[in-house]
Structure formats: structure tokens, C-alpha cells
Amino acid sequence: VAGAVAGAAAAGWLYVRHQKERRQRSRRLRDLRALALGQGDFQLRDTAGTARSKADFLGRWVLLYFGFTHCPDVCPEELEKLSRAVELLERDPALPPVQPLFVTVDPERDDEAALARYLRDFHPRLVGLTGTPEQVRAAAAAFRVYVSAGPRDADGDYVVDHSVLTFLVDPDGLFRDCYSRSRTAEEVARSVRGHMDTYEPLPL
Fold it and tell me: Residue limits of the Thioredoxin domain (predicted)?
């Protein structure tokens, strides 16, 4: 009898915990919708010069990073980390593929050819996106990414200060999470897997 009571109590506790987790996920989803991060569409071009919008990536998980090719250290490090996280996820064939994206914040120097050269050193499926200054500003604003070009030196060179974050977007095009510079590739991959495990498609 005592065992039956204990079993029933454990089952009840697990049910309550499950319901609490579901409520927390639903509340987080509502909060993310309210923030509207990344909800606005973007109109950019890939390295082949093809027009791309957010709609082109619906149905896929996306890891997105904003940066620029002349960045001396932070952007290469973050893209290496992003590539590593995607590779870790690719080791499990049961998981859906993740599309890595890089959006430049320096369209003046980062045209299609410059992006294509730069991205060769990273994940082979990493898609680079650029556009007019107005298009790039709109894309950054959709994710509330801070961007500010610094002063030019004697050679006309400059750096671009920007938010250092990698964004996770789900197959519905909804912002799910973001990862700062302090997160490792392993932590990013583990978090993405967790979101995949709990993902529920939005009703049509």
C-alpha cells in the first residue's frame, strides 16, 4: 500500500511538473512574440546576388549572426563557434538541419564577392547576406542589433561596433533565443537541441 501511495504521489508530481514546464514554455513564447524580435521581414541578397527574404528560410531552424568581414577577431571567433555548433547538431541525423546565416553590418565593403571570399573559411552551408545600407539597417533593426561605424583612419579604414549575438529562429520564423559571446559552441548546440525537442509548430 505504501508503495502504491508513493508511486501515485510520484506520478502526480511528474504530471504537475510537466504541466508547469508547458505553461512556462507557453509564457516564454508569448513573451517572445510580444518582443517581436526578428518578426519583421528583410530584403537582402546572397553571395550569388539572389534576392532573399525571411520567407526563404521558413520551415528551417536558423542560427543568425550579424557582423562584418573586416572585423579583426570577434566576428571570426563567433562564426567559428556558430559553425562548430552546427557541426555538433549535424552529428545526430535525427535532428532537423540548421541553416547558418551571416548578415553583414558593413554593406559598403561587404558586397557579394567579399562575403563569398570571407565565408569560405567557415561552415560550407553558411549563407552570407548583404544589401543596400537601408536594407541592412532594416534587417539589423528587426533583430534590435546595435550598429555604429567608427571614424575612418588615414587609409579610410574603419571598424563597425555592433551587438555580438547569435540568434536562433525556429521554422515558423519566430525568434526563439540568442547567445552571447560567453556561450560555447557546446552550450549553443545543447540549447538549440532543447528548443527542437520542445518545438510545437504554430497553427496554420
Answer: 33-197
Specify if 204 maps to a domain: no
CATH number at residue 97: 3.40.30.10
Same domain? For 102 and 191 the reply is: yes
Q: Which three cell numbers stand for residue 42?
A: 528583410
| Measured distance CA(180)–CA(147) in Å, rounded | 16
Bind-site residues? 71, 75, 162
Instruction: List b or e across 158-194, with b for residues whose CB sees 16 or more CB atoms inside 10 angstroms.
Output: ebbebbbbbbbbbbebbbbbbbeeebebeebbebbbe
Taking the CB of residue 60, how many other CB atoms lie within 10 A of it? 14
Long-range Cβ pairs for the range 153-158 (8 Å, 24+): 157/70
Residue with cell 563597425: 160
Residues 47, 114, single domain; the answer is yes
Q: Which domain holds residue 105?
A: 43-198
> Which residues line the annotated binding site for Cu cation?
71, 75, 162
Q: Which cell numbers hold the place of 122?
A: 567557415
pLDDT in tens, 31-73: 655 554 456 678 999 999 999 999 999 999 999 999 999 999 9
Residue percentage of the chain with pLDDT more than 90: 72
